[in-house]
From TrEMBL:
<dbReference type="Pfam" id="PF03094">
    <property type="entry name" value="Mlo"/>
</dbReference>
<feature type="transmembrane region" description="Helical">
    <location>
        <begin position="17"/>
        <end position="41"/>
    </location>
</feature>
<keyword id="KW-0568">Pathogenesis-related protein</keyword>
<feature type="transmembrane region" description="Helical">
    <location>
        <begin position="62"/>
        <end position="80"/>
    </location>
</feature>
<keyword id="KW-0812">Transmembrane</keyword>
<dbReference type="InterPro" id="IPR004326">
    <property type="entry name" value="Mlo"/>
</dbReference>
<dbReference type="GO" id="GO:0016020">
    <property type="term" value="C:membrane"/>
</dbReference>
<dbReference type="GO" id="GO:0006952">
    <property type="term" value="P:defense response"/>
</dbReference>
<comment type="similarity">
    <text>Belongs to the MLO family.</text>
</comment>
<feature type="transmembrane region" description="Helical">
    <location>
        <begin position="127"/>
        <end position="148"/>
    </location>
</feature>
<keyword id="KW-0472">Membrane</keyword>
<keyword id="KW-0611">Plant defense</keyword>
<feature type="transmembrane region" description="Helical">
    <location>
        <begin position="347"/>
        <end position="370"/>
    </location>
</feature>
<protein>
    <recommendedName>
        <fullName>MLO-like protein</fullName>
    </recommendedName>
</protein>
<feature type="transmembrane region" description="Helical">
    <location>
        <begin position="290"/>
        <end position="308"/>
    </location>
</feature>
<feature type="transmembrane region" description="Helical">
    <location>
        <begin position="265"/>
        <end position="284"/>
    </location>
</feature>
<keyword id="KW-1133">Transmembrane helix</keyword>
């Protein structure tokens, strides 16, 4: 009796109540997850969170892709395990040292002497689990990222509330005096941007590129966005886009912008799957690929953080240069694509996308190896 016939026999002599209970549990968990995502989507649509709803759709697509991959692996496992290759080719590029008896057990499946299966059933099962764990951890990691990011941005809400109170107070004073656009609002914008320039561009030594980069690198570890940074960027944005609405809710606009960009970094793109394949190819015994790869997301994260901080510093330096002339106008803070690498802000998003995936990959690979070690 072959393996497929033995499996069929085992299923044929399995009590029906066991099959029913197992199917009930699997179907219940799947339906509960599907309903949760469905009602979460309805909630986001009801609150008009279009960007987050789009991100949720991306996550659904990723889960559907994982399900399709699982289906293909399950459907083709008989065909894959029936492919035989020469035994000599299986000793190249091994991730771990192998015992000879393992090869001998695999050789029993192949009829031709000296041949072994392309992939054993157990190895295919482990690969199946690895892909599923990778996708699941990536979904959880993306959700955790937006939750922690939202918690960080809630701090900015207090600053926005304080600015609104100050603006409303000055508008009420202007209305009581019968004035139009209060000059105090212009003074307020100037004070916000003056403080920003003093903190970011004070001292002639800050003009040195090396010093500004070192300062930007260290700044990301503590208070990466200070109150003066927020106030200055808010003032510059309002002066440029909403000069007649000094009470514009800049924090709400920032939340929408972050949600819009978040949907672009959710999901596993094709080049990220290619990265997984390259890692599996280079995970060779003695190369310590997993160890060296762990430094890659940290290195990229520090580079991105330093670059964003340096952009803020450059904005302050340009604003300080605009004050060289004796003028009563506010410093001119002009965000530009020229501050980014190759004039493309999308590169930063791609790097953040890769960092999120790489962290998920590291955590998923750790749990996968841990499961294998416990099982062994």
């Amino acid at each position: 009796m072959g393996e497929e016939e033995a499996a069929a026999a085992k299923l044929a002599f399995t009590p029906t109540w066991v099959l029913a209970i197992v199917c009930l549990v699997i179907v219940s968990i799947s339906l509960a997850a599907e309903r949760f995502l469905h009602y979460l989507g309805k909630c986001l649509k009801h609150k008009k969170q279009k960007a987050l709803f789009s991100a949720l759709q991306r996550l659904k697509e990723e889960l559907m892709l994982l399900g399709f991959i699982s289906f293909v692996l399950s459907l083709s496992q008989g065909f894959i395990t029936s492919i035989c290759i020469p035994e000599t080719s299986t000793g190249i590029m091994l991730p771990c040292k192998r015992d000879n008896h393992i090869v001998a057990e695999g050789a029993k499946i192949c009829k031709k002497k000296g041949d072994v299966p392309l992939l054993s059933l157990e190895a295919l099962h482990q690969l199946h689990i690895f892909i599923f764990v990778l996708g699941l951890v990536h979904v959880v990691f993306c959700a955790a990222t937006i939750l922690f990011g939202g918690a960080k941005m809630r701090k900015w809400k207090h600053w926005e509330t304080e600015i609104h109170r100050e603006v409303q107070k000055k508008l009420q004073q202007a209305n009581s005096e019968g004035k139009g656009t209060p000059s105090s609002i212009v003074v307020l914008h100037r004070s916000h941007q003056d403080e920003f320039v003093r903190e970011r561009a004070k001292g002639s030594w800050m003009k040195l590129a090396v010093v500004s980069w070192i300062t930007a690198f260290l700044k990301q570890f503590h208070d990466s966005v200070s109150k003066s940074d927020y106030e200055a960027l808010r003032s510059a944005f309002i002066v440029m886009h909403y000069p007649q609405k000094p009470d514009f809710d800049f924090h709400k606009y920032m939340i929408r912008a972050v949600e819009h960009e978040f949907k672009r970094v959710v999901g596993i793109s094709w080049y990220l799957w290619l990265f997984v394949i390259v890692f599996l190819l280079l995970n060779i015994n003695g190369w310590h690929t997993y160890f060296w790869l762990a430094f890659l997301p940290l290195f990229l994260l520090l580079i991105v953080g330093a670059k964003l901080e340096h952009i803020i510093t450059r904005l302050a330096q340009e604003a300080a240069a605009s004050l060289s002339k004796d003028t009563e106008e506010a410093p001119k803070i002009k965000p530009s694509k020229g501050h980014f690498w190759f004039h493309k802000p999308e590169l930063v998003l791609h790097m953040i996308h890769f960092i999120l995936f790489q962290n998920s990959f590291e955590i998923g690979f750790f749990f996968w190896v841990l499961k294998g070690s416990v099982r062994a």
